[in-house]
Amino acid sequence: MTSSERAGAGFRFADPVLAEVVQGGLNEVEELLHKVVQSEFHPVMETSLHLVEAGGKRIRPLFTILSAQFGATWDRESVIKAAAVVELTHLATLYHDDVMDEATMRRGAASANAKWDNSIAILTGDYLFAHASALVADLGTGAARIIAETFSELVTGQMRETMGPRDGEDPVAHYLTTIAEKTGSLIATAARFGAMFSDVSPGQVEALRSYGEVIGAAFQISDDVIDIASPTEESGKTPGTDLREGVKTLPMLYALEDEPDSRLARLLAAPITDDAEVVEALELLRASSGLARARKTLDDYAARARATLEVLPAGTARDALESVSDYVVTRSH
C-alpha cells in the first residue's frame, strides 16, 4: 500500500509511515486467517480457504488497525486478533448469504454453495464463526460480549431484510435500519475493537464505533446508487442486478414513495427478468427523484460520519478516515 488510495477501500494515506504500519498489520491478519482455518480434516480447510484466498478488500480489518493508531500505544497482538475476528465473522456471513440468495459467484469465483452444495456452505460458515469465537475468547469477556451482540444485529438485519417491512411500517425507515444492522454493525465493531486495544479515551472509542456504523451504512447506499447510475465500464459491475433480484434499494423506495402509480412502480412490483425492461427501469430510475434523494441521503450520512471524528486528535489517521467519507460520496457521483 502506498501513500495513495488503498484499492477499493477509499482510504488515502498521505503519511507513508502510517501506510506501512497499516499494511504490516493487514499482512499479519492475513497470516492469522490462514492459520486458524487449518484442520486435519482437509475438506473443511479447503472450503474455508475458498473465500479467505479469494481476497476481498479487508475493509473491516483495515478499520480495526487504523482505529488503533489514535493512541500513543496499541496492543498489537490483541488488535490483530480482533481484526481477524471481524473478518472471520464477515466471511462466515458471506457463505450463509450466498445460500440464502442462491448465488453462483462470489469475488469472481464460484460461490461455495455452487461449487459444493448448500449444506457444505452453511457448515463452512459455522466453522468460521466457531474460530472467530475461539479467537475473541483470548480478548476478554468484554470483547466476547461485543461480538455476540454484533452477531445478533447481523442476524436481526438479515431477518428484517428477508421478511420485509411489516404492514404500516415505513419502507425507507425499515431499509435504513436493515443496512445499519447488516452492514454498519460489523464495521462499527471493527473500529471499536481497534480503539479498545489502544490507549484512547472511552469517548474516542465511542466516536470510532459510531463512525464505523454510519460509514458502513453509507457504503451500502453508495452501492445502491452505483447499481443504478454507473455504466458497467465505470463500476466494473452489471447495472440492474438489484432489479433482476427484486431487491428494493433506497433509490427505488424513494421513487416508489414519490410516484406510486407510475410505470416505474409497475416494473418494480416484481423481479425483472426481461433485459429490455431492466434497461427501461434503469432509465426511469436515473431520471427519477428517487436517485437524487438517495444521493442526498448519502451526502447526509457522509457528513454525519465526518462529524463523529471531531473528538479525535487531528493527524494522519483521522485524515485517512475522513478520506473514506469523501470517497463513499465521490464513487457514486
Blueprint (SSEs and pairs):
Elements: H1 16-36, H2 42-52, H3 59-67, H4 76-101, E1 105-106, E2 109-110, H5 112-115, H6 118-137, H7 141-163, H8 171-196, H9 202-229, H10 232-235, H11 241-245, H12 250-258, H13 263-267, H14 275-287, H15 289-308, H16 316-330
Antiparallel strand pairs: 1-2
Task: Please tell me about this protein's structure.
- The structure is a single chain.
- By secondary structure, this protein is mainly alpha-helical.
- The chain has helices at 16-36, 42-52, 59-67, 76-101, 112-115, 118-137, 141-163, 171-196, 202-229, 232-235, 241-245, 250-258, 263-267, 275-287, 289-308, 316-330; strands spanning 105-106, 109-110.
- The chain folds into two domains: 1-163, Farnesyl Diphosphate Synthase (Orthogonal Bundle); 201-333, Farnesyl Diphosphate Synthase (Orthogonal Bundle), CATH 1.10.600.10.
- A hairpin with a 2-residue loop joins strand 1 and strand 2.
- The protein starts with 15 loop residues before the first helix and ends with a helix.
- Please give the CATH class of the largest domain: Mainly Alpha
Quaternary state reads single chain
Describe the strand arrangement of the main beta sheet, using strand numbers: 1-2
Percent range for helical residues? over 70%
H-E string = HHHHEEHHHHHHHHHHHH
- Please identify the structural class as seen in this structure: mainly alpha
Low-confidence stretches: none
In angstroms, what separates the terminal alpha carbons? 25 Å
CATH architectural category of the largest domain:
Orthogonal Bundle
Determine the CATH superfamily of the largest domain. Farnesyl Diphosphate Synthase
Radius of gyration, in Å, reads: 20 Å
Strand elements, count: 2
Estimate the mean pLDDT confidence: 90
Q: What do we call the CATH topology of the largest domain?
A: Farnesyl Diphosphate Synthase
EC number: 2.5.1.-
Cofactor: Mg(2+)
InterPro entries: Isoprenoid_synthase_dom_sf, Polyprenyl_synt, Polyprenyl_synt_CS
Keywords: Magnesium, Metal-binding, Transferase
